[in-house]
Amino acid sequence: MPLLEVRGVTKAFGKLMALSGVDLTVGETEFHGLIGPNGSGKSTLLKCVAGAGLPSEGTIRFAGRDITAASPSERARAGISIKFQITSVLPALTVYDNVLLALQAQDSTASLIFSRTRGALDGRVMHVLEQFHLIQRCTERAAALSHGHQQWLGIAMALACEPRLLLLDEPTAGMSFEERRVTGELLMALKDRCSLVIVEHDLDFIRAICDRLTVLDQGNVVDCGTVNHIQSSAKVREVYLTRV
After folding, report:
1. In whole angstroms, what is the distance from residue 175 CA to residue 59 CA?
2. In terms of residue numbers, what domain contains 199?
3. Around Cβ 241, how many Cβ atoms within 10 Å?
4. Which of 65, 148, 210, 244 holds its CA 20 to 30 A away from the CA of 170?
5. Which of 33-37, 68-72, 88-92 has the lowest average pLDDT?
6. CATH number reported for the structural domain that contains residue 205 in this entry
7. Quick check: is 23 in a domain?
8. Model pTM?
9. In this structure, what is the dihedral angle of CA atoms 189, 193, 197, 201, given to the nearest 10 degrees?
10. What is the pLDDT of residues 201-244, one digit of tens each?
11. Would you call 235 exposed, middle or buried from its count of C-beta atoms within 10 A (0-12, 13-18, 19+)?
12. By the 8 A CB rule, do 62 and 148 touch?
């Protein structure tokens, strides 16, 4: 059974049709890339899956459960986590406390009031920071991090609760070549832990890490398949020659 099934999803903003009957299937531990020209609906599709925007039509199923109308918090509890293109780190807090806060979001109010969770979560926080090369900077304020390191911190926060599905919207935007290379290594290390749906304009980056790709254009699926299939697709070549 697929982990994520998107069927016939349409999203309209007034007269603007951002998505038109989009289908998407993602398997367990599959890395799936969404590519296409600007304005093709990639980020809108991610938001529909995460619950940041509800589809006008269609259904979304996660782990066999219909989550089409579920709230973002319900989806998060089910195992979906998203990192948007704009970083969500809190610059005034330390690197450590940003990850701690992401973990504490799952805890009850009573546990937080009586400070029962900080000590219990310390090991998990430090483990996540070590994975993302941030442990040496854990006591620094997030504002002191470079853009690339802030992006890594945002991904670390999204992964802290160990989701089954991670959604990333242009995680390498603004990064140097070396930072993009390291980001690819960091994500590949997650391959046996969760599935990934990623929106990315760096085609070399996304081809290197993804098992399958879906190409969108003007809210429609142009083609879907393995990286080799997409690279040889005449329909995809036409889109990138005429629309990019």
Report:
1. 35
2. 4-84+165-174+194-242
3. 8
4. 65
5. 88-92
6. 3.40.50.300
7. yes
8. 0.91
9. -10
10. 898 999 999 999 999 999 999 999 999 999 999 999 887 766 64
11. exposed
12. no
66 assigned to some structural domain: yes
Q: In the structure encoding, which two tokens stand for residue 173, read together? A: 């935007």
Give CA 143 to chain center in angstroms: 22
Note whether 90 and 157 are within 8 A (CB).
Answer: no
> How would you write the chain as a 3-class SS string?
CCCEEEEEEEEEECCEEEEEEEEEEECCCCEEEEECCCCCCHHHHHHHHHCCCCCCEEEEEECCEECCCCCHHHHHHHCEEEECCCCCCCCCCEHHHHHHHHHHCCCCHHHHHCCCCHHHHHHHHHHHHHHCCCHHHCCCEHHHCCHHHHHHHHHHHHHCCCCCEEEEECCCCCCCHHHHHHHHHHHHCCCCCCEEEEECCCHHHHHHHCCEEEEEECCEEEEEEEHHHHHCCHHHHHHHHHCC
Tokens representing 148 are 């690339």
Within a domain: residue 121?
no
pLDDT for the residue numbered 238: 84
Amino acid (1-letter code) at residue 106: Q
Per-residue model confidence as pLDDT tens digits over 112-128: 444 556 667 888 999 99
Q: Is residue 216 part of a domain?
A: yes
Task: Write down the residue that tokens 């930072």 correspond to.
Answer: 179
Domain count for the chain, please give it: 1
